[in-house]
Design a protein that fits this description.
The chain is of the alpha/beta class. The strands form five sheets. Strands 3-4-2-5-13-1-14 form a seven-stranded parallel sheet, with helices on both faces. Strand 9 and strand 10 form a beta hairpin.
Length: 641
């Protein structure tokens, strides 16, 4: 499928950035707000219509969009009718800020909309009108649960707007998927749609190379695809999907027999257990790479005879040893993965969720299995792969929304030609951000976290403590138990209890400990009584590599104008500083911490490090996409020679 967006490089990139800046300056938030207010007022006038009359008017509007007779006047009329329909079906009339967001997305932008402002309903307004154009409209959600929930929640609204809606989940069979892909609107995760798209591509390649395919080509017959043309997509949590997770390729692979690899992997892990860092290898904690020293290379060559013939060649021996060292140094139980049913299951560190259908490539997955003493799975051979960056560039129209789009505006414009429009809050937030606390080490940090939880708990307010790993969650639970406090823990190992834990997290006196699972898409409801006490208090125990992940946790408090507060407690031994700060700086910071104004300086340094890491990651994502296209261009040239 031909991509619909040009990827500019070098001087062209600068020119494209300038064009984007000029275009952004032309977008008037004030004018957009005025449009939305007018649509809201107009929608009130339709309350006198009968249901039948309203349905007829909606059908007429759909026909105009289908015949490409759309303009601003028709768009405003359509939105006003849909707002009235929403008030009847959902008992919710969209607010002006929601209409403003829908207008911005309809016009091909990404909106930054605060948590709790009603993004689900906002998206549905844009989806209805976009789908009236007669082309499939996909709405990307964070997980299967949300895809099913939102599709069913809004089904009546869509159907009464003369739009069919479906959803896809991971376990669905092809026949059911086919039925849902045929709907006007489809809710699904990006992984599900991309996987089906790649399977279609494999099917096309196979059939075109077959005798049947050649005959069909002569008869002008096309291979039946499961996924319809990629026309329009609205992406929820767009910063995560289009940036943070975008360079991760989705791979369609098949298992292959390779007894030699299994033997080599097991032997390699036995050897690396006797190897010493600095003496035999150098590890780079920033980029997670391993480099063997001359002494290390000499050391592993002593064990060459233990390996199968195909792995005795030096470059292959070095490769399998490096994979084993990566597993040893950078992949840890209950952090990067868990073990379920005697199998390695990857944990997404940004979301805290399990990814049971994913595996590491290049023998790394088998290296981790060897480390844990598990039966080694068969290695996989890649049939086809694609990054999410490339995939979303295939859509004709892209738009989306998120509560956290900081620091990626340049990236979104360069890769997807998207502008960010900030939507004002309907109800001002009443959240209180307390001053950050910085301490010297992790032990002191967890002591201060416990003190904070105990202090707030005494006021009967609910507390949500955000941690990075499963190990930290369980450890904090035990520390609180030693102080006589009971808490609920939410992480990847008990994800099936998520709905129940979240439902009770806003109750008076509740203490909840959670990994990043409690970030995106989590709505913690609190009672009026709880709100009067001060609302939910969030304790942040570490900064992530992306500030946006931190802000998602912040956003659990003070939703929809309710009270709430946040306290961040950090240490010089936190992973972000340990991994990225210059070597030898740690003792200096610990000394500085004892001095007047030292704590404020170190906190600012921490924030600066996070900003630099984010900026570097954004730059790398752009570079990776350029490299991917250069590689594909070279492959295409080779094939055509």
């Amino acid at each position: 499928m031909k991509e619909k967006k040009i990827l500019y490089k070098d001087f062209d990139s600068l020119s494209h950035s300038l064009k984007g800046t000029l275009k952004r300056l032309k977008i008037s938030s004030k004018k957009l707000h005025e449009e939305a207010n007018k649509i809201y007022e107009d929608s009130l006038e339709w309350s006198s219509l009968s249901d039948g009359q309203l349905s007829e008017k909606l059908l007429i509007q759909k026909g105009k969009f289908l015949r490409k007779k759309e303009n601003d006047a028709q768009l405003h009329l359509s939105f006003s009718l849909i707002c009235e329909l929403s008030s009847r079906v959902l008992q919710k009339r969209p607010y002006s800020v929601q209409i403003m967001g829908a207008l911005a997305m309809f016009r091909g932008n990404i909106i930054e909309m605060s948590t709790g402002e009603g993004k689900t309903l906002t998206a549905s307004l844009a989806v209805i009108v976009l789908s009236w154009r007669g082309k499939p409209c996909h709405l990307i959600t964070s997980n299967d649960y949300l895809a099913k929930r939102d599709a069913l929640l809004l089904q009546e609204l869509y159907e009464k707007a003369h739009v069919s809606v479906g959803y896809i989940t991971g376990e669905m069979k092809d026949e059911e998927r086919k039925l849902n892909y045929a709907k006007n609107v489809l809710y699904a995760t990006s992984g599900d749609i991309l996987a089906d798209h790649l399977k279609d591509n494999l099917k096309v390649e196979y059939e075109e190379d077959s005798t049947k395919g050649l005959i069909d080509k002569l008869l002008n017959k096309q291979v039946a695809r499961l996924v319809p043309p990629l026309a329009t997509v609205i992406i929820d949590e767009a910063d995560s999907v289009l940036a943070d997770e975008a360079i991760t390729p989705l791979i369609i692979s098949m298992q292959v027999e390779d007894e030699d690899l299994s033997t080599a992997t097991k032997e390699a892990y036995k050897i690396v257990q006797t190897m010493q860092v600095k003496e035999h290898y150098i590890k780079n904690s920033i980029y997670h790479t391993i480099e063997l020293t001359p002494k290390g290379l000499e050391y592993i060559n002593r064990f060459k005879e233990r390996f199968p013939l195909s792995w005795k060649v030096e470059y292959r021996l070095k490769y399998i040893i490096r994979q084993a060292l990566l597993a040893k140094e950078f992949y840890h139980l209950h952090k990067q993965y868990v073990i379920q049913d005697e199998k390695i299951v990857i944990v997404d560190e940004k979301t805290g969720r399990l990814m049971p259908s994913r595996s590491w490539s290049g023998g790394l997955h088998q290296a981790v299995e060897a480390k844990e003493g598990l039966e080694l799975t068969k290695p996989t051979k890649t049939n086809i792969k694609m990054s999410f960056q490339r995939f979303f560039r295939l859509y004709g129209t892209i738009c989306g929304m998120s509560g956290t789009l900081q620091n990626i505006s340049k990236e979104l414009w360069q890769i997807y030609h998207l502008h960010i429009i900030k939507i004002p809050q309907r109800v001002p937030k009443k959240i209180e951000i307390f001053e950050d606390i910085m301490v010297a080490n992790k032990d002191e940090k967890w002591h201060r976290v416990c003190e904070e939880v105990v202090s707030i708990h005494q006021t009967k307010r609910p507390v949500l403590a955000g941690v990075r790993t499963i190990l930290e969650a369980d450890a904090l639970e035990k520390k609180l138990q030693s102080r006589g406090l009971e808490s609920r823990v939410l992480h990847a190992l008990n994800h099936e209890e998520e709905a129940n834990i979240v439902a009770n997290a806003g109750e008076i006196g509740a203490i909840t400990i959670a990994t990043n699972m409690a970030g995106r898409g989590t709505d913690i409801h609190i009672s009026d009584e709880c709100n009067e006490l001060g609302g939910l208090h969030v304790v942040v125990t570490e900064r992530n590599e992306s500030r946006r992940v931190d802000l998602q946790l912040f956003g659990r408090a003070g939703r929809q104008g309710q009270n709430g507060s946040v306290r961040t407690i950090l240490s010089i031994e936190d992973e972000l500083l340990e991994r990225y700060m210059p070597k030898g700086l740690k003792p200096y910071l610990q000394t500085l911490l004892q001095r007047r104004l030292g704590q404020r300086f170190i906190i600012n340094f921490y924030v600066l490090m996070q900003h630099l890491v984010e900026k570097n990651m954004s730059k790398k994502r752009i570079e990776n996409l350029i490299k991917e296209y250069d590689f594909l261009k070279n492959i295409s040239f080779t094939k055509n020679k």
